From TrEMBL, chain A:
eIF4F is a multi-subunit complex, the composition of which varies with external and internal environmental conditions. It is composed of at least eIF4A, eIF4E and eIF4G. eIF4E is also known to interact with other partners. It holds the Pfam family IF4E. It comes from Aulographum hederae CBS 113979. This is Eukaryotic translation initiation factor 4E. GO terms for biological process: regulation of translation. Recognizes and binds the 7-methylguanosine-containing mRNA cap during an early step in the initiation of protein synthesis and facilitates ribosome binding by inducing the unwinding of the mRNAs secondary structures. One of its GO terms (molecular function) is RNA 7-methylguanosine cap binding. Residues 1-21 are annotated as: Disordered. Keywords: Initiation factor, Protein biosynthesis, RNA-binding, Translation regulation. SUPFAM superfamilies: eIF4e-like. InterPro entries: TIF_eIF4e-like (IPR023398), TIF_eIF_4E (IPR001040), TIF_eIF_4E_CS (IPR019770).
Length: 265, 87
């Protein structure tokens, strides 16, 4: 392909020429002796320009199915501060691009002080079991006890991506409320909170939705087990490790030592 | 007076860009070498939104690094701290 401007005068191509002397529309294009293709025109109004095309001048962004809020639990100061002062809402976002802007400019989990948590929850749900949308629910969780040898930053990233990418549950499951990472002295723990423990809940309606009477206990359990399996894959666990599901109420009433897992996978 | 910080081009693009619609996702011509959202998981006719695979999402990691706001660093320091303060 002769995509170069036609030789006009036999000038030495090595010698510099003033920019304004270079023809914008070579004559060769007019008389048809040389096929000169103009460069692709600048993006027109209707082009879908993503951040991959031009990170400084894109015109479409990738929507998430849900709006998500990032929360942070500060470590206690030791001066009798209460939970409400420690749990901080950081930011709410609704696009893939915003997620990465936040993730790329926030402290990594591996650099947090002990007793910190990150929580990534659907907008409008506080990451507390007392929240009306959590109080009948539970969580899948796994504690990584070899703190030094596990890549906690990528595991937490992957579980957040599975949440915002909506690959932890299927359309209509309606169970996933949020994901959480806890930084503790002896372990990192990653959890996934669900709306129900597989049963209908007060005010859950009659339909086949999370907490609805139209979803049998058997179906509810199947949905939770499927989500647990995907959660386990997202945090890179093999067949020999087990993730455990427990209801928030059970844990609250029984005390952590007596709370036994309802399901494992 | 101190010049106020100016948003970067990327921050402005994020602000002014519109949300892709579900039905448009097939029309996006991603540059060579960029995976599109896995079509196998997206039934566009019935889906309320777009599902994104981990591999699709990871591609943004080095592409979009703009801070969410001009006062972001101060906000992070205030809410999260620098991570060095021990409990």
């Amino acid at each position: 392909m002769a995509d170069v401007a036609p030789a006009q005068t036999g000038a030495n191509p090595q010698s510099p020429v003033p920019l304004d002397s270079i023809p914008i529309s070579p004559e060769g294009a007019l008389n048809g002796t040389v096929a000169v293709k103009s460069e692709k025109p600048a993006h027109s109004e209707t082009d879908l320009v993503t951040v991959f095309h031009n990170p400084d001048n894109f015109n479409v962004k990738h929507p998430l199915m849900n709006h998500w809020t990032l929360w942070f639990t500060k470590p206690p100061s030791g001066k009798g501060d209460n939970w409400n002062d420690l749990l901080k809402e950081v930011i709410t976002f609704e696009t893939v691009e915003e997620f990465w802007g936040i993730y790329n400019n926030i402290t990594l989990t591996s650099e947090l002080a002990l007793k910190s948590d990150y929580h990534l929850f659907k907008k409008g749900v506080r990451p507390e079991w007392e929240d009306p949308q959590n109080k009948h629910g539970g969580k899948w969780s796994y504690s990584f006890k070899e703190k030094k040898s596990i890549p906690i930053d990528s595991l937490w990233l992957h579980v957040m991506l599975a949440a915002i990418g909506e690959t932890l549950e299927d359309d209509g499951d309606g169970e996933v409320m949020g994901v959480v990472v806890n930084v503790r002295k002896a372990f990192f723990r990653i959890g996934l909170w669900t709306r129900t423990v597989g049963k209908s809940v007060p005010g859950g309606g009659d339909g086949n939705n999370a907490g609805g009477k139209g979803r049998t206990t058997e179906q509810g359990k199947d949905v939770l087990m499927k989500i647990g399996k995907r959660f386990k894959e997202a945090i890179g666990l093999g067949d020999t490790e087990q993730v455990e599901f427990s209801g928030h109420m059970d844990a609250a009433h029984a005390g952590s030592t007596r709370a036994k897992a309802k399901f494992t996978i | 007076p101190v010049e106020p910080a100016q948003p970067t081009a990327g921050m402005q693009a994020l602000k002014s860009a519109r949300l892709l619609q579900v039905k448009e996702i097939d029309s996006v011509k991603y540059p060579n070498g960029i995976l599109s959202p896995n079509p196998a998981v997206n039934n566009i006719s019935k889906s309320q939104g777009i599902q994104y695979s981990k591999d699709f999402l990871m591609q943004f990691q080095d592409v979009f690094k703009e801070k969410p706001s001009l006062d972001w660093d101060a906000k992070v320091k205030e809410t999260i701290g620098d991570g060095s303060d021990s409990a």
